[in-house]
Write a structure and sequence with these properties.
6 strands, Oxidized Rhodanese, domain 1, alpha/beta, 114 residues, six-stranded parallel β-sheet, 5 helices, globular
């Protein structure tokens, strides 16, 4: 099994600034999402990931998955890795680390996957 790929908030910010081709997927609950999202993130509640496997397997991009603290997103990445999907990266520390680093949040997500 492949090792869980992770990135921290500063590394993610740099990748976004460098215009690296990546997607952001917020797997938090709708109530959590109302508090703001990382700019350009799409949303997909964690429990719907198994129903949307094709979204991840067909993507040509690196997909950074995040939640509040990085725990649920790490689980999601491990689940996807077990399905043979290796283009996913966990945001270590989640949106909590992102916002505590002074990085911008948008009030609403770009789009929803499901």
């Amino acid at each position: 099994m492949s090792r869980l790929k992770e990135i921290n908030a500063k590394e993610l910010f740099s990748m976004i600034q460098d215009k690296n081709h990546l997607e952001l997927v917020d797997i938090r609950t709708p109530a959590e999402i109302k508090r703001g999202v990382i700019p350009n993130a799409k949303t997909l509640p964690m429990h719907l990931i198994p129903l949307n496997i094709d979204y991840f397997s067909l993507s040509q991009s690196q997909i950074v998955i995040y939640c509040r603290t990085g725990s649920r997103s790490a689980q999601a990445c491990r689940f996807l890795n077990k399905q043979g999907i290796n283009n996913v990266i966990n945001l270590r520390g989640g949106i909590t680390k992102w916002s505590s680093g002074g990085l911008r949040l948008d009030p609403a997500p770009l789009d929803s996957i499901a």
